[in-house]
Design a protein that fits this description.
mainly beta; 7 strands
């Protein structure tokens, strides 16, 4: 799931939530991993991530409806995001932000 500050694609202020499940998704089944990435200035620095941060991120899906090529999802998340000099490098545990939020979004299934 990607969130942008306006209802259109932007390169700045992007929040990305990625979740993985073991096997097929089932309602009520918790993801095995959740990563939140915040790109306040797009692909320019700074970058903040929950990757490699202990207890970094959680995701709760309240409802999800999936069709052949589209869907709808409602949920919430919380994360501890820490600064990284480059994407996928070790985070600076002394430069972190706690965030949480809710979302309601249409899904495009590929």
């Amino acid at each position: 799931i990607q969130a942008h500050p306006e209802p259109r694609f932007t390169k700045d202020g992007v929040l990305s939530i990625q979740a993985s499940w073991f096997g097929a998704f089932e309602q009520g089944k918790a993801p095995v991993s959740v990563e939140v990435l915040y790109l306040p200035e797009g692909m320019s620095k700074p970058f903040y991530t929950s990757d490699q941060v202990p207890d970094g991120a959680t995701l709760a899906i309240e409802s999800i409806n999936l069709d052949d090529d589209s869907g709808h999802m409602v949920g919430s998340f919380s994360a501890k995001l820490c600064h990284v000099a480059k994407l996928y490098e070790e985070p600076d545990m002394d430069d972190c932000k706690a965030i949480d939020g809710t979302f309601e979004t249409q899904l495009q299934i590929r």
